[in-house]
Every structure is written in structure tokens, then in C-alpha cells.
Amino acid sequence: DVKVTQSSRYLVKRTGEKVFLECVQDMDHENMFWYRQDPGLGLRLIYFSYDVKMKEKGDIPEGYSVSREKKERFSLILESASTNQTSMYLCASSRDGWGTEAFFGQGTRLTVV
Amino acid sequence: GENVEQHPSTLSVQEGDSAVIKCTYSDSASNYFPWYKQELGKRPQLIIDIRSNVGEKKDQRIAVTLNKTAKHFSLHITETQPEDSAVYFCAASIDNYGQNFVFGPGTRLSVLP
Questions:
Q1: CA B108 vs CA A35, B1, B29, B111: distances in Å
Q2: Can you tell me the distance from the alpha carbon of A37 to that of A42, in angstroms, rounded to the nearest whole number?
Q3: Which of A1, A35, A43, A90 to mutate to test the interface with B (most CBs of B within 10 A)?
Q4: Which of A64, A70, B15, B37 is 20 to 30 A from residue A47's alpha carbon, by CA?
Q5: Is residue B50 very low, low, confident or very high in pLDDT (cuts 50, 70, 90)?
Q6: Is B98 in contact with A43 (CB distance < 8 Å)?
Q7: How confident is the model at residue A99, as a pLDDT?
Q8: Cα separation of A96 and B51, whole Å?
Q9: What is residue A2's predicted lDDT score, i.e. its pLDDT?
Q10: Residue A14 class from Cβ within 10 Å (0-12 exposed, 13-18 middle, 19+ buried)?
Q11: CB distance A100–B99 less than 8 Å?
């Protein structure tokens, strides 16, 4: 059973803080993704990675960065948190190959005050 | 870039009735279309997918149809049950590997007993 684990279920941070969201998968998947989920907007891709130390911008990368130093771990970094980054953040992973299933973490609900 | 629209945003049906959710996409190069189900408080999970060389796919009570010419695809759920109540997301691939997607905004399905 694939497990994608996000470090926190709920987080409250102050404006301007640097925030780290961690994601770990245990199935040796090559691909990892960070999405944010907002009502009425669905899932929007922030960053993705197809390999260790590799990263690509998604649709809404502004204000975020990522790090993938190990295959199983993909970190999302909010350099200076702002209130408009209050959202649900979902990590996902998938194995290499055409049209493989994305497995999601349980999500981190981040509130920036 | 790809844009995925999804209708309706909310849908209520009586238990036992059928439910249909429709999505349209803009990029004719998209070739892989997964559907994800997200129950309240849980992570999204893949329920069915379809590739562009197939017009219809069925898995028990759920089916997906694809019309490449019109650039739309639909999810059909027959004999709905209370456990079908969830938010459903359609998605369209935006790369040649079926790994990266644009998601629709979601449909909240409520199955009334």
C-alpha cells in the first residue's frame, strides 16, 4: 500500500515567516508534486519533480520554492508566508511511466495570520 | 495552456439514480484523462481513467466517455449509493507522459437517501 505522508495536518503561521511543508513517500516513486486546493479552483500545481534534485514550476509557483535532496522526500517552502497562501496543500507521488496513478498525501491545512 | 472546465459544481441525486459530471478541455494534445474522488476530510483517490485512443471505459458502476473531437469527457455513476457522496475532480494531461495534469474545479456530489 502506497503511503504519502505529509508532516503536519494543520499549521498556523505568521505573515512573513518561512514555512516548510514536508512530504515523504515510501514506494520509491520517481515523480512528486505539490498542489494547493482552494474551493472552486480545484487542485493547482505549484511545483513538481521527476527526479532527485530536479524541479519544475507548475502553474502557480510564485512565492514558493521546493527541494528534493532525496528521492523519497519533497519539501515545499514558503519563503515569506502571506495571508493569500492560506490554503490546503496536497503532496502527491507517482511512479515513472505513462499515465500512472498519482497517490496523494492527507493534506496540510495552512493558515497564515 | 490547458484549461479544464467542469459542470455542475454541485449535484444532488436520490439514492439509486444516476449521476453525470461533464468536463471540457482546451488542448487537443491532451491524451490522458483521470478522475479522482475526494471524500470529506480524505485524500483524492483515482477512480477511473481513460486514454485518448479509447472512447469509453467502464468499471462496475462507473464509466467514463471521451469525445476527442468535441474535447469533452464525462463521468457516469449508475445506481448511486450514499458512499458515492464526495467531490469529484476531472483532469487532463499536459505532457507527453501522462504524468502532469490540469484539474477541473471539482463537483460536489450528494447522494440523498
A1: 19, 26, 28, 10
A2: 6
A3: A43
A4: B37
A5: very high
A6: no
A7: 80
A8: 17
A9: 64
A10: exposed
A11: yes
Tell the residue number behind the cell numbers 497564515, with chain if given.
A112
The band of A84, judged by pLDDT with boundaries at 50, 70 and 90, is very high
- The number of angstroms, rounded, from the C-alpha of B53 to the middle of its chain's C-alpha atoms is 17
| DSSP string covering B46-111 | EEEEEETT-SEEEETTEEEEEETTTTEEEEEE-S--GGG-EEEEEEEE-STTS--EEE---EEEEE
Q: Please list every residue in chain B whose beta carbon sits closer than 8 Å to the beta carbon of residue A106.
A: 42-43
b/e per residue A82-113 (b: at least 16 CB within 10 A) = eeebbbebbbbbbbeeebbbbbbbebbebebe
pLDDT at A7 over 80: yes
Chain B residues closer than 8 Å to A40 by CB: 9, 105-106
**Can you tell me whether residue A84 is helix, strand or coil?**
helix
Enumerate residues 70 to 99 of chain A having a beta carbon within 8 A of any beta carbon in chain B. 90, 94, 97-99
* B34·A101 Cβ contact <8 A: yes
